[in-house]
Specification:
alpha/beta
Length: 244
């Protein structure tokens, strides 16, 4: 899958990682980039960028986007939310439901809507932006981790289902990416541009999984020993928060 001269669709395209995807696609010579974003959020003045009204929780808007953008060859499911709520201590299910609706069901809606489009255009590629939280429960944001774990399973299943039509399905995992979502987090962060560069290089090489930073590589490597190595430090952080 080559980025040059391709047509791409990016969800959550107006800021953060989504904006970085749009810019990098243009720099690498994409013929057109559809920028899916909520109404009223401009993306780029480049004539190759077409802004598409999109809310991944709205099935009608997703269907309309797929019908309008029938030349798409690369779908980048970037839109996501993180509510920073625990699971047991949360007063309602609202945060966890919102995270699942956007991060899991939103991704599923886009995959379903664009799968026939990609098939007609030779197979193409789907990129699902996931997280290191796909593999390890984040402290105080259990719903986010659950939604990303579900999206990881979804990605693997979609890859199986779309293999015959020649669609590459790629999962991108990273820890903290230096965007507005984690402004208050004081921890090492990878730049959006670095994640995007690794992702676009990866899909050009046909990779099904991209570990975009040291944290995602560390956690993936430690998965066979996660309860011995990964969770005790997290338990200590959680217990410390409760004692304050």
């Amino acid at each position: 899958m080559k980025v040059a001269d391709s047509v791409a669709f990016v969800t959550g395209a107006n800021r953060g990682l989504g904006s970085a995807f749009v810019e990098a696609l243009l720099e690498r010579g994409a013929a057109r980039v559809y920028a899916g974003t909520r109404p009223g959020h401009p993306v780029s003045d480049d004539p190759r960028v077409v802004t598409i009204p999109l809310d991944v929780t709205d099935a009608a808007l997703v269907t309309a986007a797929a019908e309008r953008c029938g030349d798409v060859e690369i779908l980048i499911n970037n839109a996501g939310i993180m509510r920073l709520d625990p699971l047991i201590a949360a007063e309602t299910d609202e945060a966890a439901r919102d995270e699942m609706e956007v991060n899991f069901f939103g991704t599923l809606r886009l995959c379903r809507a664009f799968a026939p489009v990609l098939a007609r255009n030779g197979g193409g590629a789907i990129v699902n932006v996931l997280s290191v939280a796909s593999w390890i429960a984040p402290v105080a944001s259990g719903g986010y981790g659950a939604s990303k774990a579900a999206a990881w399973s979804l990605t693997n299943a979609v890859r199986l289902e779309l293999h015959e039509q020649g669609t590459l399905v790629t999962a991108v995992h990273a820890g903290f990416i230096d965007t507005e979502m984690v402004t208050r987090v004081r921890a090492p962060k990878v730049s959006p541009q670095d994640v995007v560069a690794q992702t676009l290089d990866g899909i050009e090489r046909g990779e099904v999984e991209i570990l975009a930073d040291d944290e995602s590589r560390r956690v993936k490597e430690a998965l066979p020993r996660d309860h011995a190595e990964l969770y005790p430090p997290l338990q200590a952080i959680w217990d410390g928060r409760r004692r304050r």
